[in-house]
Amino acid sequence: MIRIVTGARLAALQQEAEGARERAREIQGAADRAYAGHLRTVYNLTADAEAAERAAKADRADAAIVREILERTEAQLADARATVTEQAARIDALTEELSVMQASVVLLNHGQLHSLHPDEKAAKQHAASFGVDPDGWGTVPSDRPAAESAWRISPLSKWAVAVGGDAA
Question: Which distant-in-sequence residues (6+ apart) come within 8 Å of 110 by Cβ?
Answer without folding.
Answer: 146, 147, 148, 149, 150
